[in-house]
Design brief:
eight-stranded mixed β-sheet; 2 domains; 423 residues; Rossmann fold; six-stranded parallel β-sheet; alpha/beta; 16 helices; binds uridine-5'-diphosphate
Length: 423
């Protein structure tokens, strides 16, 4: 008989990063948005979701209602401070006990465990071996691909081993693109029929084109400058070194500025590093570090800009590109994540074949010239991505949840030997 309960009880594990954390800072970005938006959509469809996190424990009430059917549950892991990613593995047993106590107190039998990122995945495996629930993993980034694509990333052996194990033991693997599906098969030998592609979405109610001149006035940007915008975390994988080198190749154009949104504040080492790099390249006077910006204000930035740049070495999806397109602003990007699907070559932006700074600069310049001449139509750019709603994403995710039972193999399910926390 096909397993199809109408109202699912879903346990989402987002241990190192909170769906209500400060977006654009070190460990809080696309994954947090994904968890928040998916949970809310599933909640609207009548399912019950508890999201478990350790991030910002002590800053909020232990349990917060995000909507009628969605709760955010803070687990301490034995401390009231955020635990750094590198120390999480040590406290997984405490997190497991706390989560179990919560579940028993609330008297809930979850149907689904959906783990986000490998650290949550390891906790999910332990829960999978204790509960009668299906376990799905979304990696968000794949360690092996990060290491291969970005010279300064160094995903640990522990991470790679566990990511491989998750590919073997989880009931389903949810990825946002065909590219990530291929990577998981190639690097982790993930069984092809376990993998479901569920693209990300965008909140079209929030991310919409605003009047460019008004947005520029609001942000105190000059009305005549060419504005190149970056939005995202300041992490090595984002390719900001290449972006600066590309931008140096644009200094022959008068009044072109690079606005950098995101980062961990004035005193962060990464910001200092970027400031020195900008100085060394003599582009510091054309650069503005705007700091992190709440999503409610981001449409002003996207609408004020002539082009959004995504110079990353690797992305799992790349939400900022979708947000920019939804706001009617073209994108120049490297060939990562969902870019080849969402950017229409020459119409809504360009996907650079590689990260050669001169080539990348030429593509930015082409867009700036187009914007100066007739201007690209924001409404046409927006409608090119109209299908990417979170409602559609959540429906596809629900299909993945419901089909997970197909992969539930008895010997894997109760194989407790493989599923214990190893130091
Ligand atoms: N973001 C934000 N404020 C910032 C920087 C980023 O709200 O200052 C959000 C942005 O809107 C997007 C997310 O953070 O939704 C970044 O997601 P993306 O997939 O582009 O990158 P990731 O963080 O997953 O690497």
């Amino acid at each position: 008989m096909k397993w199809r309960p109408t109202r699912l009880k879903i346990s989402m594990l987002s241990i190192h990063s909170s769906p209500i954390g400060d977006l654009g800072t070190r460990d809080t970005g696309g994954m947090s948005v994904y968890v928040r938006e998916m949970a809310k959509e599933l909640g609207r469809k009548g399912h019950h979701i508890d999201i478990f996190t350790q991030h910002n424990v002590g800053k909020h009430d232990p349990v917060i209602h995000l909507n009628d059917n969605v709760r955010l549950v803070h687990l301490s892991g034995g401390t009231r401070k955020n635990i750094g990613k590198s120390s999480f593995y040590e406290v997984l047993p405490q997190l497991f006990n706390e989560l179990e106590s919560f579940r028993i107190k609330e008297n809930i039998a979850y149907d689904i465990i959906h783990s986000h990122y490998w650290l949550s995945g390891v906790l999910g495996l332990k829960l999978q071996s204790s509960w009668n629930a299906y376990h799905l993993i979304t990696y968000h980034t794949i360690g092996a691909v990060k290491n291969l694509s970005c010279p300064t990333e160094n995903a640990s052996e522990l991470r790679l081993t566990n990511e491989k194990k998750l590919a073997k033991l989880c009931d389903r693997i949810v990825v946002p693109t065909q590219q990530d599906k291929e990577y998981l098969i190639r690097y982790y030998n993930a069984p092809i029929d376990k993998i479901r592609i569920v693209p990300c979405g965008v909140n079209f109610g929030l991310f919409k084109p605003l009047d460019k001149a008004s947005a520029r006035r609001y942000l105190a940007f000059s009305k005549d400058d060419g504005i190149v915008l970056y939005v995202g975390r300041y992490a090595p994988v984002k390719g900001l070194d290449h972006l600066f080198e590309a931008f140096r190749n644009l200094t022959h154009l008068p009044n072109v500025r690079l606005v950098m949104v995101g980062g961990d504040g004035q005193h962060s080492p990464m910001l200092r590093q970027l400031q020195s790099k900008a100085k060394a390249l003599h582009i510091e006077n054309r650069l503005m570090f705007a700091g992190r910006v709440d999503q409610e204000t981001l449409p002003q930035y996207y609408s004020a800009a002539d082009v959004l740049v995504v110079p990353s070495y690797y992305e799992s999806f790349g939400l900022v590109a979708l947000e920019s397109l939804a706001c009617g602003t073209p994108v120049v990007t490297t060939p990562v994540g969902a870019m080849e699907e969402i950017v229409k070559e020459g119409v809504t932006g360009y996907v650079a074949k590689d990260m050669d700074p001169q080539h990348y600069a030429r593509l930015i310049e082409t867009i700036l010239i187009k914007q100066q001449q007739n201007g690209l139509s924001p409404s046409k750019i927006r409608s090119s991505v109209a299908e990417y709603t979170w409602t559609r994403s959540a429906s596809l995710l629900l299909d993945a949840y419901r089909s997970a039972s197909v992969h539930k193999s008895e010997n894997i399910y109760k194989n407790k030997e493989e599923i214990h926390f190893v130091k």
